[in-house]
Write a structure and sequence with these properties.
Length: 735
């Protein structure tokens, strides 16, 4: 009985022990054959190789983010791992890190090539080109090599305007020759043509590419080419086609292009809409803010345009287009000095061959004049504008004002008449022409021209003022006085008071000639009041003192006359001083002052006349030795003897009054047709040669299962006899 139950008792005793053994650590021999995970230091060789290859598999699928930590855990001791890590970093746009790693693995065929790409991607184009030239990479990357060199040259041109576009074009053509099926090579060459301003050629090239494939990016590029060639309707169609697609690689450029095309078609609401959409996409887009400002400026919304330009300049203080627009806005708002500064900061943005720039050239010229600049500074801009459009009166008007500023009155008159041939009824041009005619004592012509100006614009004060001057010169003093009284009642301006004072002074001379000394004195005193009021209103006009000196001379207050002349000691006042001393029988003093006046202006007929008369009256004997005075005496007949000054002279000498009149400033509406620039695509990315390297791994030996051996012992025997109680189970039987 014991023999039957003994085996069961043994098993029951050993069972717990057998189960417990599976929870314990494996034996040392097992641990030596199958190593566990590394606990530090360099990973085992097989682990490094398998980890590298796994990462390469992920990287080839484009899963760089998953491959990166795997390669980093393997460390950088292994060259292959380090090289693959560099390629993954490059794929993740970690260009500086990739470049550092690639410099340590020159033994790989594409290492130098990818180093050049990494340099270019980091913006070091010149260094990148050098690496690409020294290490061209494997033969299968020859098309990429040519393409990358082209992109680098194109970027350099966009960066600093270097003439590298032709070189870029050559490289793109080589890339196309090696691999004509690659669309990005063809688009890049089209971009090079755009950068060279070969817009028609670029347009043809893009259309050829579009015939082969309908990639949305081609529509965007065709829109830019159409924009550059002035085909604005066609440009809008291309941009609409692109924006209807799902491609967003050139979304901003397409929005800007739509705005540009709509602007040039004067569809201002649409232009504003798309410029604002572009700003929503990229608030830092200078071109979008400038386009918005240009549109507002063309709508004559100068205040809002100024704010938009200022925002663009905060984003890029060197933007020439923004400075140009700001200059126009300042000019239109009357901020002429600021306008001149912005024109200067715009640099060479103005094109002397672009008709759209006509308004900008004339605006710059007028801004200089309005800011107080010299006529010589403004003249070149008007001459350039004249070459762009000689049918417009604007450039001629500007040239006339420039020559007036330079006191070249003859040429100023010629330009004014040229302008009037193109704008006959312009009251400002008519007024300026008449004022210039006064310079040459053409009083009748001046009167007619002033009358035309008043007929064209009855409220033109400068024309009315000039009309009063000519009425006086025509000895229609009462009409002149009535005119000035009505003008001063409406607008008491200094130059009107001065001229009325001159009219009253001549009325005094006329009354004195008519033997009415009381009336004469009354006019003289009223005249002095007008001169004093004029001086109070505009103290800068010191020549009013000269006219007051003439009145003091008429009433024999010689000391006051001298003080008045000395307050404005010009050539005119010097002449009048000489007349004063001649009238006072101080011939030596008169001789001195009249000689000085002639020395200052030897072509002035009045100066010459007064000196000749002085020598005939007081120094007759000296005339024989003064050939200059004899020669001048022959010109005296050219002096209009019927002039108001000659007619009412008390002593035969000519006293000069200085009329005051202002030239009208020519106004022009300005079209403000700002030029638009196509957006040359800058989406051509550099192409690395991501040739990942696997590491060979030895095939693992397949372990055979151990052969089961029958345990034989003299202490055990096998009972092969079946019994009904134990069934077919064979158990060892204890002896």
């Amino acid at each position: 009985m014991l023999n039957r139950w003994l085996p069961l008792l043994v098993l029951a005793a050993l069972g717990p022990r057998l189960v417990a053994d599976y929870s314990e650590a494996p034996p040392a021999a097992f641990r030596r054959v199958v190593p566990g995970p590394p606990t530090g230091g360099r990973p085992p060789v097989d682990t490094t190789k398998r980890g590298n290859n796994h990462a390469v598999m992920l990287a080839r699928k484009g899963n760089y983010k998953a491959a990166l930590p795997m390669l980093r855990r393997l460390g950088t001791a292994n060259d292959t791992v380090r090289y693959n890590l560099a390629l993954v970093e490059l794929g993740l746009h970690h260009f500086e890190t990739a470049a550092q790693l690639l410099r340590t693995t020159p033994q790989f065929s594409a290492a130098g090539f990818n180093l050049g790409v990494a340099q270019c991607q980091a913006g070091a184009y010149e260094n990148g080109l050098m690496d690409l030239s020294v290490n061209p990479g494997p033969r299968e990357a020859a098309d990429k090599l040519a393409y990358n060199k082209g992109v680098a040259h194109l970027r350099l041109n966009a960066l600093d305007g270097r003439n590298n576009v032709g070189t870029a074009d050559q490289h793109f053509r080589e890339a196309i020759r090696l691999n004509g099926s690659e669309l990005r090579y063809r688009m890049a060459r089209g971009d090079a043509l755009m950068a060279q301003k070969q817009y028609h050629e670029a347009q043809k090239f893009f259309k050829q590419a579009l015939d082969e494939t309908s990639h949305p990016a081609l529509y965007a590029r065709l829109g830019q080419a159409a924009l550059a060639t002035g085909q604005y309707e066609e440009a809008l169609e291309y941009f609409d086609d692109y924006l209807a697609s799902s491609d967003r690689s050139q979304h901003l450029e397409a929005l800007l292009g739509t705005g540009h095309a709509a602007y040039r078609l004067e569809q201002y609401p649409r232009a504003l809409l798309f410029y604002r959409k572009a700003i929503q996409v990229n608030a830092g887009s200078v071109n979008a803010h400038v386009g918005l400002a240009n549109t507002l400026c063309s709508q004559h919304n100068y205040r809002d345009a100024a704010r938009a330009y200022d925002l663009a300049l905060r984003l890029d203080s060197t933007s020439q287009q923004a400075h140009l627009g700001r200059a126009i806005v300042c000019f239109r708002l009357g901020e002429f000095k600021r306008s001149v500064r912005h024109f200067q900061q715009a640099g060479d943005v103005l094109d002397p061959k672009n008709r759209d720039h006509f308004d900008f050239f004339v605006s710059r010229g007028f801004a200089i004049l309005r800011a107080g600049g010299r006529g010589q500074e403004a003249e070149p801009y008007f001459l350039t504008a004249l070459k762009l459009d000689n049918k417009s009166p604007v450039a001629f008007a500007g040239l006339s004002e420039s020559h007036i500023k330079a006191q070249h009155f003859r040429s100023a008159l010629d330009y004014a008449e040229q302008a009037l041939r193109r704008d006959e009824s312009n009251d400002r041009l008519l007024t300026n022409r008449a004022n210039l005619l006064l310079k040459f004592d053409y009083f009748d012509k001046a009167h007619q021209t002033f009358a035309q100006a008043v007929s064209s614009n009855p409220r033109n004060v400068n024309a009315l003022n000039g009309l009063g001057v000519t009425l006086l010169e025509m000895d229609r003093m009462d009409e002149a006085l009535h005119l000035y009284d009505s003008l001063i009642a409406r607008t008491p301006r200094a130059f009107l008071l001065n001229n009325r004072g001159i009219v009253k002074s001549y009325l005094g001379l006329r009354s004195e000639k008519a033997k009415d000394p009381v009336r004469a004195r009354n006019f003289y005193h009223r005249s002095l009041k007008d001169f004093q009021q004029a001086q109070d209103l505009d103290s800068a006009r010191r020549f009013y003192a000269n006219n007051a000196g003439n009145v003091y001379k008429n009433i024999s207050e010689f000391d006051n006359a001298v003080r008045s002349y000395e307050a404005y000691l010009s050539k005119t006042a010097i002449n009048n001083m000489g007349v004063l001393f001649a009238n006072a029988s101080k011939e030596r003093a008169s001789q001195h002052y009249l000689n000085v006046a002639v020395k200052i202006d030897s072509s002035n007929f009045i100066f010459l006349y007064n000196r000749s008369k002085l020598y005939r009256d007081y120094f007759h004997d000296s005339l024989r030795s003064r050939q200059d005075i004899q020669e001048a005496g022959r010109l005296i007949g050219m002096l209009p003897q019927n002039s108001i000054a000659s007619r009412y002279s008390k002593d035969g000498y000519i006293t000069i009054y200085l009329f005051d009149y202002e030239y009208d400033k020519y106004e022009f509406p300005g079209h403000h047709r700002f030029p638009v620039q196509p957006e040359v695509a800058e989406h051509n990315e550099f192409l690395p040669h991501l040739q990942f390297v696997e590491m060979p791994v030895a095939a693992a030996a397949v372990a055979k299962p151990p052969t089961a051996e029958r345990v034989k012992s003299k202490n055990f025997r096998t009972n092969t006899r079946r019994t009904k109680r134990w069934g077919s189970t064979k158990c060892p039987v204890w002896p």
